[in-house]
Amino acid sequence: MPSTTQTKRTTRTSTSSNANAISKTVSVSKLSKKSKIIIEVEDDIETVKYFPKTPKDRKTFINPKTNKPITDFQYSVYDLCAQVPKGQVTSYKSLSDSLKSGPRAVGQALRVNPFMPLPVPCHRVITSNLSIGGFAGGSGDSQLVCNKRSKLIKEGCLFEGDTFIANSDGKRQIFENFKM
């Protein structure tokens, strides 16, 4: 495996709907000089986004990722996911069991989560076999999954490849203590 070096870089981006530039810090991994491959990792775990709490606000909020209102089921998923503490993980199955739903439905709701990284830290959701799973619509060996792993590692979780090893407290445990 090629050697890597880690550096930090601040990038500025802007969107057509927001003329103000947004600064974010990304980790940059550069593989050996031979390969000349640079991978930027978006590992922000601090940004808190607006999260509607009242029924009125929830009905009128439009998801900027889909340009559609968020469904009651999606809010149920987001409410539970928001309970997962920093440095811990839960599984799609644990969330779906709490909601009496299916893991794929939970995954689809999280795929379009507009409230990440906080207050809805969907990067803290992994598969029940302790694999990292997908992230923001990406799966497998994608940049999005690399970003998810980087966020979890920054919170203190340990991985061996794509397999979850331990929470920040050293325990290999899935968070399931959801308050309904």
What structural category do the secondary elements indicate? alpha+beta
Distance between the termini: 46 Å
Q: How many beta-strand runs?
A: 9
Radius of gyration: 17 Å
Helix count, DSSP H or I runs of 4 or more residues:
5
Q: How many structural domains are formed by the residues?
A: 2
Average pLDDT, all residues: 84
CATH 4th-level superfamily of the largest domain: Winged helix-like DNA-binding domain superfamily/Winged helix DNA-binding domain
CATH topology of the largest domain: Arc Repressor Mutant, subunit A
CATH architectural type of the largest domain:
Orthogonal Bundle
- Strand proportion, as a percent range, falls in 25-35%
